[in-house]
Fold this sequence. Notes:
Number of helices: 8
Shape: globular
Low-confidence stretches: none
Oligomer: single chain
Radius of gyration: 18 Å
Helix content: over 70%
Structural class: mainly alpha
Mean pLDDT: 93
Amino acid sequence: MYPNEFSSIKKIEENRVLLKKASSEFMGTSxxxxxxxxxxxxxxxxxxxxxxxxxxxIAMIYTLGxxxxxxxxxxxSLAFFxxxxxxxxxLLIYCLSQLIGAVVGSxxxxxxxxxxxLSSASLGENTTSHIGIGSSFLVEAIxxxxxxxxxxxxTNDDTYSTLxxxxxxxxxIAMILVALPLTGASFNPARSFGPALLVGGESLRELLIFIVAxxxxxxxxxILNCFFKK
Length: 230
């Protein structure tokens, strides 16, 4: 086999693997947003909403995590990039897949609500109206930092590999229970992007807070992980 042929075959295989990973991130984020925000729209039970997000994340991590790592969140992907666990190309592809997946998940929820004759005025979007812009930023940044720090830590050590998905999901449940009455609990730019894009209005104007704050949290989580890394 000629070197050029070998190089072409290798490139095709790399692209196939990357496409599979992108599809995994797309699907996992779609399901997470659909189930999580769907529960938020249809239920007033904070525990139920937190459980919906957390249990769905656990399911998606164990279903798709072996393919892409199960990020489903640009803040997580950014932290993995900063810790040199993925490269820039993968970071960009993951983030794009997650954002598109979130829009699709919100779009499915919108269709379900409309065809069921239910109000589609809300799609589980986040808000700063309860505690203000500054406090919302701090809540989202700090809790995202803690959440992503847990993710980075439990996926560093092979000892915890089989329990990592469960630990991550339970951590998300705990974080959502704290933040749900305050900001609607994002910790995930994609989770905020999908609903805000389709609802528009004030949600879209506030979206930047729920994109920047989790990314800042992810950056600080990567620093913490480096500090505490064995």
